[in-house]
Amino acid sequence: MNKNSLLLLFIVLLLLGSCSKKDNPVLSVEEVVAQKLELTTWKLGNVQVDGVDRSSLFNGFTIKFNSTNYTTTGTTTVWARSGTWQFNANSNALKFTRNDSIVVTIESITDSSLVLSLMWNESTFGGRINSVAGKHIFTLTK
Question: What phi, psi does 21 have (nearest 5°)?
Fold first, then answer.
């Protein structure tokens, strides 16, 4: 090899060595879903309980996630005002468990919509806050 070829090879190797994988980190499925969850404060579109519209029981409901916590507004016993959450192992970021042991399924998530489902086993009527037992499907938007 001549000097120019060696110099060119050295420059190419130097450039390749300076390229860092940190520039484009590969995100896990959980990291991608968590980023979408944390994207915004999610506002209630509607709530179905066992196929019946029960949105009126969730007036003013919103939910905001960060990496380990959530906070809510509105009237509901189904979601505490605040709590923690964590993805379930081997769920491909499709299920998480709240600190009250309720498992929540992420039915779908985009940058502008979120659909969550959970089983709620209590019916409470009377007073300011009501709830109905059954499978709850929350459709939320930005």
Answer: -70, -15
pTM of the model: 0.78
First-last CA distance in the chain = 62
pLDDT by residue (tens digit) across 23-63?
A: 668 889 999 999 999 989 999 999 999 999 999 999 999 99
pLDDT in tens, 88-124: 999 999 999 999 999 999 999 999 999 999 999 876 6
Domain range enclosing 116: 28-141
CA distances to 38, 78, 103, 130 from 98, rounded to whole Å, are: 16, 11, 6, 20
Domain-embedded: residue 134: yes
Supply the CATH number for residue 135's domain.
Answer: 2.40.128
